[in-house]
Design goal:
This protein has 227 residues and is α+β, with helices and mostly antiparallel strands. The protein is built from seven helices and eight strands, in the order βαββααββαβαβααβ. A hairpin with a 5-residue loop joins strand 2 and strand 3. It comes from Achromobacter animicus.
């Protein structure tokens, strides 16, 4: 897929098996429609661990960076529904990154998403951006793959919201996030190893901690007229 808009919210969390069915019901029938009703929200996608684990990945695509601090969005964050209030505490190990879209190549939605969280060494930002931009262009044309996207966290200054407090306090955030989409899991998984084992990548990140996982598309909702 090519991402819609200029900003995004990328989130990872775990849901215990006992809560999974109700979580997916709530997220599909209440939470996604609520978010797509906020001006500036264009599309939401929910992904589940391709290995069958407890992890979820959720990506919201936004018209503009300013949507992150818009009155409509803040109103929802600070006035969660009773169902949201019940389910939010079950979001374990939350990572929530508010991002600018730096690069996005490809078209359509694919079945799988590789997500990589990483950080450049000081002074290597432009080199890493160029490397991932070139990688995204090549990946989008490879058999088994369909697109790739680089988003970078730029957390706006704001007070903790009611939703954050319900989840137990300040959320953690990633730094740089690289997402590769594809229709063949073998191609997506191979891309993971190619990136993380690249000598160029290691030189630009110092071989520092990088986290990655592969997810399978579970549900998507797009705002009417978003394209």
């Amino acid at each position: 897929m090519a991402m819609l808009g200029k900003a995004a919210i990328a989130m990872w969390w775990d849901i215990a098996p006992a809560w999974r069915a109700e979580f997916e019901d709530w997220h599909t029938h209440e939470h996604f429609p609520e978010r797509m009703g906020v001006p500036g929200f264009l599309r939401g996608t929910r992904w589940t661990s391709a290995q069958g684990g407890e992890g979820f990945f959720v990506l919201y695509e936004l018209e503009a960076y300013e949507t992150l601090v818009s009155p409509g969005y803040l109103q929802r964050l600070n006035a969660p529904t009773p169902w949201s209030t019940k389910l939010m505490p079950q979001h374990r190990n939350m990572i929530r990154s508010q991002c600018r879209v730096v690069e996005s190549v490809g078209g359509g939605l694919a079945r799988y998403a590789l997500t990589i969280r990483l950080s450049p060494l000081p002074g290597s930002e432009e080199a890493l951006r160029a490397y991932l931009k070139a990688h995204a262009a090549a990946a989008a044309a490879q058999p088994g793959l369909s697109g790739a996207h680089l988003i970078v966290t730029d957390t706006p200054a704001m007070n903790a919201t009611t939703e954050q407090k319900i989840r137990g306090g300040k959320d953690r955030a990633a730094d740089w996030i690289y997402v590769v989409n594809g229709y063949a899991i073998n191609a997506v998984t191979a891309c993971d190893g190619d990136i993380l084992n690249s000598a160029q990548m290691r030189a630009m990140t110092g071989g520092g901690p990088a986290w990655s996982d592969v997810y399978c598309l579970s549900h998507t909702l797009e705002r009417a007229g978003a394209r």
